[in-house]
Design brief:
By secondary structure, this protein is α/β, with parallel strands linked by helices. 50% of the residues lie in helices and 13% in strands. It is built from 17 helices and eight strands. The N and C termini lie close together (9 Å). Bound molecules: hypoxanthine and zinc ion. Residues 14, 16, 166, 194, 217, 275 line the site of zinc ion (ZN).
Length: 332
């Protein structure tokens, strides 16, 4: 079952590229760029990855991102990620990046975009992985700052697939970002948002009604609201669920008590992804394998999860059909 879960063709739709920074690369880039780290060793960094909630993770995640300065750093980061993705049966990646984390430190948007875009192009020729970039706004910052970030990105909007919303959820409702999402959609960008990870079901509703997003990232708290569940089911709104992340950030105590099976049983379009794999202990293949084991998912259920990831992709219908055929034909 492990090999089946890892090998089945799938799409990665919830991955923060800054969250793929492995401690080894953190040290390599810190040395290369002369950035001081408060950690003495890779082991010390890994030992610090004990989180009590989302914020305790974000503090260390933003600290780690300080080593990313040059275009080459972003290229190396994403290139290393694609090596792992190819090993996990990933055929399509819709990758989140957080420009404000970098522009705040004086790194230009173009530097970030160019490094990531180049890695995405190489992934197509090297591994046959197609990909797109989703610019995420940091929700702990203001709507005006998000709008400034979007304005800076629109001159090269053809290099983006869409926009997203991440960072500290509690106290930062989707309603803060109505104008910037409206503008992004008017410019032809797709829209997704994190909601219902730590925040209440109402944030999921706001993301749909006010931001008009096409997918919900996480969304696991929807089960607290039966009316919302009925709507998500009726409209087949994709939920990009990240099981290992949810346990590391204490959204669920254990994988065995994760609600993924209940989401599927409720008829929801849930899929499995990895969020910040360098921090949470596993890439998408490990998320599939660990969830399969802990929740005793059948091969058919694993295939459904892989199909759901492809159904939720922002690709044209022919490409989607071809990927679905690959999922359906997969045998060990
Ligand atoms: N939630 C919110 N923001 C994030 C996350 C997450 O899991 N990872 C990186 N930024
Ligand atoms: Zn996330």
């Amino acid at each position: 079952m492990d090999a089946f879960s890892k090998g089945i063709p799938k799409a990665e739709l919830h991955l923060h590229i800054e969250g793929t920074l492995e401690p080894e690369m953190m040290f390599e880039l810190a040395n290369r760029n002369g950035v001081p780290l408060r950690f003495k060793s890779v082991e010390e960094v890994r030992a610090a990855y004990e989180f009590s909630d989302l914020q305790s993770f974000l503090d260390i995640y933003y600290e780690g991102a300080r080593v990313l300065l040059k275009e080459r750093d972003f290229y190396d980061l994403a290139s290393a990620y694609f090596v792992r993705a190819a090993q996990d049966g990933v055929r399509r990646v819709e990758m989140f990046f957080d420009p404000q984390t970098h522009t705040e430190r004086g790194v230009s948007y173009e530097t970030v975009l160019e490094g990531l875009s180049r890695a995405c192009e190489d992934a197509r020729s090297r591994y046959g992985i197609s990909s797109g970039l989703i610019l995420c706004f940091l929700r702990h910052l203001s709507g005006e700052e998000a709008m400034r970030t979007l304005n800076g990105a629109l001159s090269s909007k053809e290099r983006l697939l869409g926009v997203g919303l991440d960072s500290s959820e509690r106290g930062h409702p989707p309603s803060k970002f109505v104008e910037v999402f409206a503008r992004a959609r008017a410019e032809g960008l797709r829209a997704v948002a994190h909601a219902g990870e730590e925040g209440p079901p109402d944030y999921i509703r706001q993301a749909l009604d006010l931001l008009k997003v096409e997918r919900i990232d996480h969304g696991v708290r929807c089960l607290e609201d039966a009316e919302l569940v009925a709507r998500l089911k009726r409209d087949r709104v994709p939920l990009t669920v990240c099981p290992l992340s949810n346990v590391k950030l204490r959204v669920f105590e254990t994988l065995g008590t994760h609600n993924l099976r209940r989401l599927l049983e409720a008829g929801l379009a849930a899929s499995i992804h990895s969020d910040d794999p360098a921090y949470f202990g596993g890439y998408i293949g490990e998320n599939f394998a660990a969830a399969q084991k802990a929740l005793d998912l059948s091969a058919d259920e694993v295939r459904t999860l892989a199909r759901n990831s492809v159904e939720a992709c922002f690709v044209e219908s022919g490409a989607k059909r071809a990927l679905l055929d690959e999922v359906d034909a997969f045998r060990l």
